[in-house]
Amino acid sequence: MKLTKHTDYALRILMYTALLPEGRLLSIREVTDTFDISRNHVMKIVHKLGHEGYLTTLRGKGGGFTLGKPPEAINLGELVRCMETTMKVVECEQPVCRMSPGCELKGVLAEAVAAFMDVLNRYSLADLVGNRNELIRLLAIA
Questions:
Q1: Termini Cα distance of the chain
Q2: Mind listing the domains of the chain with CATH numbers?
Q3: What global pTM score does this model have?
Q4: 26: number of CA atoms within 13 Å, CB side?
Q5: pLDDT tens over the chain, length 142 residues
Q6: Preceding peptide of 95 cis, ω within 30°
Q7: Which DSSP symbol is given to 89?
Q8: CA dihedral angle for residue 69, residue 16, residue 21, residue 63, rounded to 10 degrees
């Protein structure tokens, strides 16, 4: 299974935000400059993460965003389910596959996706930033 760029970027944004000192706001520009992601993409992702409670956003001059929950409370499985529009690995309906009525592939892939999600459910954002000092150095966070 491959996650969409939308989810990949959401994970990166949350990791970056989790590394900041408490109370420091992260800006859209800092994210775009750090990860070389389009401003439009970042704005959409931050908006969704804010709407879902993962981020707290502050608009206007001097605005930005910070984590809306502690890193330990952000479950990776829940986050991926929130960000992904579908968890299908293959498309059997468009176009309709002639083997579909008797095919076992759908069941096998559904089981694989369930196993993938079971692993993600065991981790939180805090687990992703456990090597905090190294990540701060790599991102050059002051």
A1: 36
A2: 5-139 (1.10.10.10)
A3: 0.89
A4: 30
A5: 789 999 999 999 999 999 999 889 999 999 999 999 999 999 999 999 999 999 999 988 888 999 999 999 999 999 999 999 888 887 777 788 888 888 898 889 989 999 999 999 999 999 999 999 999 999 998 7
A6: yes
A7: S
A8: -80
